[in-house]
Structure formats: C-alpha cells, structure tokens
Amino acid sequence: MSGQQQRVAVVTGGAAGIGWSIARRLQADGMHVIAADLVEGETPGSGVEWRALDVTDRDAVAALFDAIVSDRGRLDVLVNNAGIQRHGPLVDLTAEEWGKVVDVNLNGVFHCLQAAGRHMLAAGAGAIVNITSIAGERGSPGRAPYSTTKAGVIGLTRAAGVEWAARGVRVNAVGPGYIETGVYHEGVAAGRLDPAAILDRIPADRLGRPEEIAQMVSFLVSDQAAYVNGQVLFVDGGFLA
Ligand code: NAD
Q: Which residue numbers delimit the Ketoreductase domain (predicted)?
C-alpha cells in the first residue's frame, strides 16, 4: 500500500522501549509509522520513519503534525508514549525536577493531542492512545511527579474522549504495569526496584512484555474498538484488579 491509502500513525518516544514495540506493531498492521523522538534509536533501516521531536516544544509539535499531514495527506493514529521518570523523596524534589516531568509527561501529551486532534477533527476521523501507568492509579514512594502526571493523563484522556467522541475522534489510554524494559532493569540495578517484592504483587506472577502493550494499542486504534471512547485499559497482569 502506498500514498494516501496507507494509514499514518505517529508514536511519540517511538524509537526505543515500549514505543518501539508499538511502532513495529502498527507497522505490521499496515500503517506508515513515524517515530517522533529525541533520538533515532532503533529506527534506522527499519522502515519506521524517524522525525526529531521534543514533545515539550509546542511550536515544533504543531509544525511536525502540519508537515506530516502536508506530506502524507492524512493522519490516522497518535500514540502519546514519550515519558520520563525522576526518582527521589518528595520533600527533596526541586521545582525544576517537578517541572521537567510535568513538561514531558503531561504538557507534551497535551501539545501532541491538540495538534493531532485538530487535523483529525477536521477529517472527522482518528484514534489517539495515551500511555499512562499503574502509577497513575496507585502511589509509589519516590515517584510523586510521575504518579501525578500519569493521573493527569488519565483525566485528559477522559476529557478529550468525551469531547471528541461525536466528532469521529476516539481518545483512550493504556496503562502498563511492570514491563520488562531497559527502564525496569535500570531500576533493579540502582536498587530502586525489588524484583521479588514486585512479583509478589502481580497476580499473573510475571512481568509484562512490551509487545503486550503494543497489542492493546493496536486493538484500540483499530475499527474493532470503534465504540470505545475515553477509557483507560490497564495491561498489568492483574496488579490493579
Ligand atoms: P524509555 O525511556 O525506554 O523510552 C522513552 C522514549 O521516549 C525514548 O526513546 C526517549 O528518547 C523518548 N523521549 C523522552 N523524552 C522525550 C521528549 N521530550 N520528546 C520526545 N521523545 C522523548 O521508556 P519506556 O519504558 O519505553 O516507557 C514508555 C512509556 O511507557 C512512558 O510513557 C512510560 O511512562 C510508560 N510506562 C512504562 C512502564 C515500564 O515498565 N517501562 C510502565 C508503565 C508505563
């Protein structure tokens, strides 16, 4: 498939980690996928197009979505996946550290959702998935800005989901539990995460795989999910059940 018939998907932070799995899955679903990321990551030679983007740069976000629609003639899917963490006790957190996490995890989602949403609303069709976390539903020590922003993403998902539902644009969220990624292994190596204690809290008795997040995203952006609006689906092995 080529040209204007092929669906176009943008995955922020799509060059590495969970975002890369999502990008590959949507590519396998037949879409032209653009990984909008700070780094090229896994994209060279993959067929996934990389475009440099810092999601905190509101003007750059607007320019990128305008350029994509101008180049490809359409925009079908946005996955707001880019996210960062800062670890440390809440009492020691600086305003700069707080602001950085809010800027990427919440403001970045707002900028991209709005810029993509404008094009999708004009076309009367589109699907957006925001990546939140179990940390948006449960507090976890040392992750206050992360939990706060991920809870904010849930609120934004519900607000946009109902505001745009009658106009053909679906907005939903996926909340991963503990997924076996570089971020998880770094947390274990740094002593922030205790693998035994984590497994103890997961009914499925294992970590999740990035592909399992990608599968849920694939479903939510497909026509099979045509009547799913403003929902948050946790993929967490039963952690929050
Ligand atoms: P990761 O750090 O492996 O990858 C994140 C990607 O986002 C990187 O490629 C990075 O370059 C990009 N990125 C960071 N800041 C950016 C910015 N300002 N603009 C554009 N791109 C930026 O992270 P991950 O573990 O794959 O997590 C992906 C998403 O899943 C995040 O939203 C994270 O909060 C969420 N999540 C992850 C887990 C987990 O277990 N790993 C669990 C729950 C939720």
A: 7-201
- Please state, in angstroms and rounded to a whole number, the distance separating the CA atoms of residues 178 and 135: 10
Percent of the chain residues past pLDDT 70, beyond the cut: 99
User: Which tens digit of pLDDT belongs to each residue from 21-35?
Assistant: 999 999 999 999 999
- Report the atom number in ligand 1 closest to the C-alpha of 104: 18
106 within ligand 1 shell (Cβ under 6 A): no
Q: Where are the domains of the chain?
A: 3-234
pLDDT digits 0-9 by tens, 77-111:
999 999 999 999 999 999 999 999 999 999 999 99
Q: Using the mean position of ligand 1's atoms as its centre, give its distance from the Cα of residue 177 in Å.
A: 13
Q: What is the pTM of this model?
A: 0.98
How many angstroms is it from 64 CA to the middle of ligand 1? Answer: 19
Distance 166 CA to ligand 1 centre (A): 31
Mutate which of 21, 37, 193 for ligand 1 pocket (most atoms within 8 A of beta carbon): 37
CA dist 148 and 162 (Å) reads 22
- For 3-234, CATH number out of 3.30.450.20, 3.40.630.30, 3.40.50.970, 3.40.50.720 equals 3.40.50.720
